[in-house]
Specification:
Double Stranded RNA Binding Domain; about 160 residues; about 35% helix; about 35% strand; alpha/beta; 5 strands
Length: about 160
């Protein structure tokens, strides 16, 4: 009886996992990717850090090799559409003085076949963020928080466009 119950439980477990797969859910013809990061925000040069984070994430993921746009099977275009800073915590003694902030990068991502131009995957809105304390000045804090926000954005973009769940 115990064996029957165990077998029944296992069959339900495996049936619940139907449709899930590990690894890439991209077509087999897609082995290489080119990255493009475009900045449509008013914050200058944030695309540089975002590109650095995107490259690192693709390399760490390992499913696709980076290539130039001319040599790649697919192109992943990330468009930065918003950059914002919001106050999170305030000083109790000075009610309007913020002590902690969150920087948020919002982007859209499109992965398309380099040969045909067909869209493989599209993510219309993805956000990466990072929190930072107010130290000497807001500009220094923003600059220090950008790499973490860009890393968070890159991790989410690669997960949504390449990973399969």
């Amino acid at each position: 009886m115990k064996k029957l119950i165990s077998l029944l439980a296992l069959s339900f477990l495996f049936a619940g996992c139907t449709g899930y797969q590990l690894g890439s859910n991209l077509p087999e013809s897609i082995q290489t990717v080119a990255l493009i990061v475009e900045n449509k925000t008013e914050e200058p040069s944030i695309e540089v850090q975002t590109m650095k984070s995107m490259r690192a994430e693709v390399q760490m993921d390992g499913r696709l090799a980076l290539r130039s746009e001319q040599d790649a099977d697919a192109v992943l275009k990330v468009t930065l559409v918003d950059y914002s800073i919001n106050s999170l915590a305030y000083d109790r003694e000075h009610g309007t003085l913020a002590r902690e902030y969150r920087v948020t990068l919002t982007a859209s991502a499109v992965l398309y076949d380099a040969a045909t131009g067909d869209v493989i995957r599209e993510t219309p809105r993805v956000r990466g963020d990072s929190e930072f304390p107010y130290a000497a000045d807001l500009t220094s804090g923003k600059r220090a928080a950008l790499p973490t926000a860009a890393d968070d954005l890159a991790r989410k973009v690669i997960s949504m466009t390449i990973a399969a769940w």
